Amino acid sequence: MKILKLAAVLAFGVLAPSAFAASVCPVLAAGSVGGEGVSGTYITDSTGTNGGCNVLITFNSNGSIATTFPNAATSYDVGGDDNLIGIINNSGHTITSLTFTSTTTDIFGFDGDGVCGTGPGYTVSGGGAACPGGGVSNGYLPTGDSTSGVASNLMSGTVNFGGGIATGTTAFFSLEGPVDLNLVVTQTTPEPSSLILLGTGILGVAGAIRRKLKA
Fold first, then answer.
1. Is residue 84 within 8 Å of 174, Cβ to Cβ?
2. CB neighbours (10 Å) of residue 172?
3. What average pLDDT does this structure show over 195-214?
4. Checking phi first, is residue 80 left (phi over 0); if not, alpha (psi -120 to 50) or beta?
5. Do 124 and 118 meet the contact criterion of CB atoms below 8 Å apart?
6. pLDDT digits (tens, 9 = 90+) for 132-163
């Protein structure tokens, strides 16, 4: 069984309401990127809301994380080795990056048949390309996103979102491996140096007020 651990790096933002009636992920209709067509199971199971996502991760305003599997297929491609991940951000913060680790699968071992591939590409229900403008990392991420810190065994790495995922918005990307996820999320805390600067600032204000009172 493949286990993915997820760490979310959040930056402060402004809370905004959101509603996601349309699919967060493109619902794939056909494709030949890397010679891989769309899974027949995926097509059968992709009719519901957000049905294009093999995995849908929702960051809630109370700090909880909800993970669902709108599309019952274990992959979007007939090769059975790629899954489409959607993100809904209702956290009140901007998500700048997500770090994934697998214990069994080289999820960053991209082999050229990603959902955002250029060339013949995947097409979506109703026509058009899955990711207009192409993508990066062999087409697994939309343009503007990137990967970093990928381990030598390709089983862990970070997905960086170019402009961040603002609260009240969504994003998607794809990874290698069939779907079977257990997610653990940790949020970053202020660095010690930041806390020291904050403390110094407070002491400075207090000193100024004391001097003013003495005068």
1. yes
2. 24
3. 41
4. left
5. no
6. 777 888 889 999 999 999 999 998 888 999 98
